[in-house]
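Hey, resending since the last one bounced:
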Amino acid sequence: MRNIVLTALAPIFWGTTYVITTELLPANRPLLVATIRALPIGILLVMIYRTLPTGIWWWRSFVLGALNIGLFFALLFLATYRIAGGIVATTGAIQPLLVVLFSWFLFGERPLPLVMLAAGIGIVGVGLLVLDPAARLDALGVAAAIGATVAMASGVVLTKHWGRLVPLMVFTGWQLTAGGLILAPLAWFLEGGLPPLTFTNVFGFFWLALVNTGMAYALWFRGIEQLKAWQVSFLGLLSPIVAVFAGFLLLGQTLSLVQIAGVILILSSLVLVQRSSVASPTATQPRSTNQPPVSNKAAR
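The structure tokens again:
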């Protein structure tokens, strides 16, 4: 339960991202926002722990950084700026199902029927919670939202499969730095330099970088290590719940009976997943015997 609660804090923090992006950050700069969210905190963690990857962990860090951070952030913010947050959240709700399917097809982890049922219930629940029937559909925005979900699901599966050989914050710093380095040239080329920032913008960036990224991703990667991959992905359904309640508390938005029903369905899917995890043996963390130990000498 402690592992579940700590991991759940990550999507709870992420649930504030939509409000922060639309209310506190510069408009129409998705790549810039994604870069500032990832790169400074990633470099800071690498400098603090003074540990660089070695061997195969160089390319693995860049693959995981691209999926979990670079590609995911860029597509997520692009979708957030172009379509309603409800559509983004509903698209993201298919992530648990994708994680289950990827784990099955790539690594032979056959899903329990109860898990598949919970995935369907979660998708319906998020749809009831946040989807606006009158929302404007933008083809590029919808494609970006789907791409972000696929990238994140792939990153969860590979993070679980590869494991880690270094402390958690070092592992987090590697991925944030790799993702930020991928994003930075794209942001500069496509969106230009840094615009003038207000105090509100700076506060929003600090919250995204320190809380929604550094702290949240450390908890997320820890959860992937301690729990099943699909079990972690279901906790991501907490994010749209927090997003809706943040809008209710901070922006004066209303909650309908349909939305409340959506919350109940989402929570029901989470309960089903926890029952499934008790019914099946906990998978051990895979370790590759050909992975060299990571040394601090490269950075000292």
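Residues 51 and 297 are 8 Å apart (CA to CA).

Sorry for the duplicate.
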